[in-house]
UniProtKB/TrEMBL annotation:
This is Uncharacterized protein. It comes from Roseateles asaccharophilus. The lineage of its organism: Bacteria, Pseudomonadati, Pseudomonadota, Betaproteobacteria, Burkholderiales.
Length: 102
């Protein structure tokens, strides 16, 4: 009796390491991706963009460059893929009025 070879399961760190990306509405991810430069022309492998994501508030999205090819390798291209999202903490700068002493 032959058994099918076991496929390795994907590492859990990559699956759980996307932050709050699942909660960010797709329209905001799409707008952020449209604002990025052409992936083939940029030397960086990763770009971070901050956007206002509606009810979620300000969010920092991390896009990574990936390369894909068509079957038989006749065509290849480079594109951006959103891999991580995290909320941007607002700086709590308390500006108290200067007290005047006389």
């Amino acid at each position: 009796m032959m058994q099918a070879p076991r496929r390795p399961s994907p590492p859990t760190s990559t699956l759980a390491d996307n932050g709050i990306l699942a909660r960010v509405p797709g329209q905001y991810v799409g707008l952020a991706q449209a604002s990025l430069p052409d992936a083939a022309l940029v030397a960086d492998e990763e770009i971070r963009v901050e956007v206002d994501a509606g009810w979620l508030g300000r969010v920092r999205l991390t896009f990574r460059k990936y390369r894909y090819t068509r079957p038989k390798g006749k065509f290849s291209a480079t594109a951006w893929s959103c891999r991580h999202a995290e909320p941007v903490k607002a700086l709590a700068c308390s500006q108290e009025p200067a007290s005047t002493t006389s």
